[in-house]
Design a protein that fits this description.
74% helix; 5% strand; Serine Threonine Protein Phosphatase 5, Tetratricopeptide repeat; Alpha-Beta Plaits; disordered N terminus; five-stranded mixed sheet; mainly alpha; globular
């Protein structure tokens, strides 16, 4: 069980324990008598499940139903389902328009169930509009209310959208936790969302992680269920997921069958964007086959659909693929125009990942036409963008944790207020019952104190874990880039002050991308993990060992001249060649290129790192698998 899931489950169990205790103590407690809507009105009851099966046809039915509705509650319910249908078709503007109209008709005070269904629908619409971060507050409040009232249909819906939002934010561990919690609830209760629905969502997490083999069995389970229940939209999406997974695992013919079926089904139900997604993958296959004209036709059609739907993410991807077609046709200017269009669209922090992808394509394009200086300068810019992306992801994670902590505090405060109200009710009971209730309330206070203590200890654990994540690279066990540069900077100041020797090396695993391409990302991760373990085992505890990029590392050796550091690094480089035997893959070959510099030649960490980088490039130019020490010019 992952840590976030453990935390959620623990808090849920404690909350239910307190709730059950309240109910056993005060069987005559006053319950608010109101006209709260607790389920979908009869007018739309039969359309709820159809929203996900045939959203296009359901929209027409809901519009006719709206014309016949009288009450604000019924109108709000229709708006909620219209919003969900438009979100299913990725028409986010329409989805946001309807959910806002629905929210104008209800409030958490007069119709909480409807209100929180609308807030989750708004989070879903914001997610499809590329504004996932804004949707978090809506889903968090809905999840808290649904758990407290045990509305499991709403809870599973909110958990699914919370998971999709975390996928959009690239926090896949959190997404998996929410989908797994929804899966468990769907098994335990007869909810609208079934375990097979969450199986499809879990498959999507593995797809985002590019763990295609793990995704396929989950998609297959969902496919069988959607065929049985005639859920056309969900089946089209699942067929697309299977087609993409088979494409990435090299099963091209099988992939094309699934993608064509997905596109045809999407067109039948009016999901033009769903068809466009399939076109984009099919076009990539045609590019690989050298059928550039056919690929261009698919991509142009997909781009037109994504433009009409105002889907910036997929417009960017289509433009990048079109640029590849133009590059294959040796049309440098046309390819660059496509990438420039994509670059103009990738504006703002939400598109940092796409910005980096576009930059990599441009850099490769420059290099393919011999403009190496432009390619190099662009790669330097991309390094800064990557740093910005990492900072944004860290800031986003901290904000989520802070929000979660504030929600926990509010829940604790509400529990205390509820306990106070119940204590007041005991005062009107007879004297014989009073003694029993006083003892019970005291016991309840102990439970609440234990809950608060648990939250406090849990917060401390989270804080320690965040500090560890901020300073230590999870895969290699070495220092993170930021921590490495901070420590090296401190050591450099000490070396200058005390006139001590200090050597700095930048290391790069040779042809690491080829290892990933040939043997898979799992083997690549195994290599990085073994490299980190070997480094920690080989060098001294006082040496600074950090990972500053994908396969790039920065090592610093305090109180060590460059000559001695070179000797240590040579032994280490020899040991690196044995990594394939360590990870049980004798077919791959591992070596490391190293640039070494003596700290006495510069005064700042950035200057030393740049000099070490230059030496590293010299090592690569000289054939790789060697150490080049920077030689200061006279």
């Amino acid at each position: 069980m992952t840590w976030p899931l453990f935390t959620v489950v623990s808090q849920t169990l404690l909350h239910r324990l307190a709730t059950l205790l309240f109910l056993s103590l005060f069987s005559l407690s006053v319950q608010a008598q109101s006209d709260y809507v607790r389920q979908w009105p009869d007018a739309v009851q039969g359309l709820v499940s159809e929203v996900r099966k045939t959203p296009d046809a359901t929209i027409s039915d809901l519009q006719r139903t709206f014309a016949l509705t009288q009450s604000d509650e019924d109108k709000a319910a229709v708006h909620a389902l219209l919003s969900r249908a438009y979100s299913a078709l990725l028409l986010h503007k329409k989805a946001i328009e309807h959910v806002n109209l629905g929210l104008e008709l209800v409030s958490p005070a007069n119709q909480p169930w409807l209100y929180y269904n609308l807030t989750v629908a708004k989070a879903e619409a914001l997610d499809t509009a590329g504004e996932a971060q804004q949707g978090l507050t809506y889903t968090q409040s809905a999840i808290a209310w649904a758990k407290s009232t045990e509305h499991f249909d709403l809870l599973t819906y909110a958990l699914s959208i919370q998971g999709y939002i975390h996928l959009a934010l690239s926090t896949t561990d959190d997404a998996l936790s929410f989908f797994q919690e929804g899966y468990r609830l769907a098994q335990e209760h007869n909810t609208l969302l079934k375990p097979e629905d969450f199986a499809s969502m879990i498959a999507l997490v593995y797809e985002y992680r590019e763990e295609w083999q793990q995704a396929i069995p989950y998609y297959e389970r969902a496919e069988a269920y959607y065929r049985e229940t005639n859920a056309s939209l969900e089946l089209a999406n699942t067929l697309f997921g299977l087609g993409k997974a088979y494409f990435e695992t090299g099963q091209i013919q099988k992939s094309m069958v699934y993608l064509r079926d997905s596109a045809n089904l999407a067109l039948e139900i009016g999901d033009l964007q769903g068809a466009a997604y399939s076109y984009a993958i099919m076009a990539n296959h045609l590019i690989n086959q050298g059928k550039y004209i056919d690929a261009e036709s698919f991509l142009t059609e997909a781009l037109s659909i994504f433009e009409a739907a105002e889907n910036p993410y997929m417009q960017i991807q289509a433009l990048i693929s079109l640029a590849k077609v133009e590059q294959k046709k040796d049309q440098f200017e046309n390819a660059m125009k496509m990438l420039d269009r994509a670059d103009d669209m990738a504006d703002g922090s939400a598109f940092l990942t796409q910005k980096i992808q576009i930059g990599l394509e441009k850099s490769g394009l420059y290099a393919s036409f011999g403009e190496y200086e432009k390619a190099y300068q662009l790669m330097l810019i991309l390094r800064n963008l990557q740093n910005d992306l990492e900072r944004e992801q860290n800031s986003r994670r901290l904000l989520e944790l802070r929000t979660a902590f504030e929600v926990e505090q509010q829940e604790a405060q509400n529990a205390l207020l509820k306990e106070q109200n119940l204590r007041q009710q005991t005062q009107i009971m007879n004297e014989q019952s009073l003694q029993k209730y006083v003892v019970a309330v005291a016991f309840l206070l102990v439970i609440i104190c234990l809950l608060l203590l648990f939250l406090y200890v849990n917060g401390k654990r989270h804080q320690r874990r965040l500090e560890l994540l901020a300073n230590e690279d999870e895969l290699t066990g070495l220092l993170t880039r930021r921590k490495t540069l901070d420590v090296v900077d401190n050591q450099l100041h000490l070396a200058i002050r005390h006139d001590d020797p200090l050597a700095i090396a930048v290391l790069d695993l040779d042809y690491f991308k080829q290892i990933n391409d040939k043997f898979g990302h799992q083997t690549g991760d195994d290599v990085l993990r073994a490299f980190g373990k070997l480094a920690r085992k080989t060098f001294r505890s006082t040496d600074i060992l950090g990972r500053i990029g994908g396969e790039e590392f920065l090592f610093a050796f305090p109180h060590t001249p460059a000559v001695k550091a070179e000797s240590l690094l040579k032994k280490f480089a020899e040991s690196v060649r044995d990594i394939p035997f360590t990870i049980g893959n004798n077919q791959c070959r591992i070596s490391v290129s190293i640039g070494l510099v003596d700290a006495s030649v510069a005064r700042t960490t950035s200057e030393l790192t740049a000099l070490a980088d230059e030496a590293l490039y010299d090592a690569k130019d000289a054939g790789r698998d060697r150490i080049v020490r920077h030689q200061p010019s006279d």
